Amino acid sequence: MASSSILSRLFGARRLALGIVLCLLAAGCAADTEPELFLLPAGTTTTSTPDPSADDGVATTTTSTTTTTSTSTTVPPGRSRPANRVQTENGEVRGDRTGNIVSFRAIPYAAAPVLGRRFKSPQPPEPWDGQRDATEPGPACPQPRGNVEAQFFPVPRQDEDCLTVDVITPRTGDDLPVMVWLHGGDFEAGSGASSAFDGAALARRDVVVVSVNYRLGAIGFMVTGDLARASEGETFANRGIQDQVAALKWVETNIRRFGGDPDNVTLFGSGAGAESVCVHLAAEASAGLFDRAILQGGGGCGATQSVEEAIGQGAALLAQTDCESSASPIDCLGLIGVEALLEATAASGNTFGLVADNDLITRSAVSLASTDDLNAVPLMVGSNADEGTLFTLDADDLTDEELREQVIDVVGGEQEADLLLSQYPQDASNAEKLADFITDSKYTCPAGRFALLASDDTTIYSYQLNHASADGPGELGATHGSEQYFLFGNPSSMIGFADEYDDIDQSVSNFMQQAWTTFARTGSPASESGADWPPFFEGAEAHLLIGPEPTLSPELQEGRCAILASATG
Hints:
alpha/beta; Rossmann fold; 2 domains; 11-stranded mixed sheet; 3-stranded antiparallel sheet; 18 helices; 31% helix; 17% strand; globular
C-alpha cells in the first residue's frame, strides 16, 4: 500500500531499482537435431544393428509386438535421456541441442490462465497432438510496461499464456539432480525465460535446470472481497505460488524423461523467488515436491500480509476501474484488457505479494522454524553484502532526521535507532547508511535469524557474497540480485555488467556454480567445491564469505544484527 515513509517508498515500489539486475531478456538458442526417442509399448521386443554412420554409436532398432512392427531410432544405455525430442505427459516436445546441452523452452505446465481462468487456480495443460516446437523462448507473464526499468533492459514479450517451464539438461546421463529456479522481481516483474537465467552453465555440471514462469502482480496475487467470498473451497489467494506448486508437480511427473531424478529436486530462487521458496518450506501443498532448497537474498522467511490488508489493496485497484460497481467485480476484472489492468494497478499505487490466506499460507517458515516444525530439507541461506544499494538510488538528498525516522519505524524506539546508527561509518553519506540499514534489517540479519532457528530442524549452510564485479553497475557493490551474474554464467545478459568475466569474476562464478550444483547433488556445498564450509548452527555460527578466496566468519554485519535482534524482539 502507499506510504509517505521514504523507506517504504524506496523499498516497497522498487520500480527504479529492479531493472538493474533482473535484466529479463528473451534467450536465443542454437538449433540442432537429435535422434527421436520413442516410448515402446509393453511386450515389445527389439533387435539392434550398429549403424556406423549414426552419431555416437546410435543403433537402428527394429521393434515388434504381436500386432505391429515399426522402425525407430534409439540410443545406447546411459544416453537414453534426454534426446532433443521427449514425450511428456501432455505431448511430445522438440528442443535444441548445442554441444552436450539440450534446451527445451516454453513447455506448458498448466493451462493458459485466460477465458475466465485469469484469477483461478492453475488447471492442467491441454494435451497436444504431434510434436510441439520447444526451441523458442516463451513470453513473460504480464507485468508493468513503460516504467523506469525499461531504460536498463528491453521490456520482454508478454502474454497471459505464460505458465511454462524451460528445461535445460545434459544430453547424456539419467537420474541427474534437478534444480528448479524461481525468478525474483518483487512478485510483479521478471521471467523464468530470461537469458540471464539460462541454465546451460549449471547443466554442464551434470544437473537438470528448470526455470519457472508464474503469474505476477494483480493477476497473481490480488485479493478482492468477492473473490474471497466466492472461493467455494478453492484457494483464492497467492495464485502465483499455486502456479509454482503446479510446476513442481509437473517436474515430479515429467523430469525423469529429461534425464532428471524426481527424488532429488533442489528449489532455488533470489529475491521474490527466495521468498517463494520460504513459502514452499512451510506449505503443506509443497511437501514432498522438493528435497533441498537455496534462498538467495530472500530475507527472513516471514513477510506476508493479512487477507484484510490484501482486500484493501484490491479495493484500491477496483476503484481505478469500472468494475468497482459491478455485481461481480472479480468477473469484471477477468474480462478487461491486460493493459487496462496493469494501468489500474499502477494508478492504485499498490504492489501485490504474499497473503497469509490460512490455506496455502497458514504459518510462515520462520514461525515454523521457531517451534521446530519446519519442513526439514537441507538449506543454503545467504545474502549479498550490499543488498540495500539497489533501493537507495534516489536517496542522495536524505536528511539526518529522515534517516533517523526510517530506522525508528523499523526498530521501534529512538534509543535503539540511535544506537544502531552509531554503528555505521560516520563519514558515510545518509544514502549509504540507509543502504546498509536496508541490507541489515531486510536481508542479512533476518536471513541469519532464520538460519539459526532452522538449524534445529535441518542442516543449514550460510553464505554472504562479498565480491562485486569491477565492471558492475555504478557504485552498487554486491547489490541485491547481483549473485545471479556469477551463478548462471551469462554475463552478456546482465545489462549494466561487463559482457565478459575478468579472471576474478570467472573464479567466483566457477566457485558458486560448483558449490550450488554440489549442494543439489549431495546436500553439502563443500563436498566437491573444495571450500571449508561447515554447517551453521547455534554455538558454531559459520558464514562463508564468497569472494576471490572464500573465507569463514563467525558473524556478519559487525555485530549490528545483535542490536537489531534486541531492538525488534
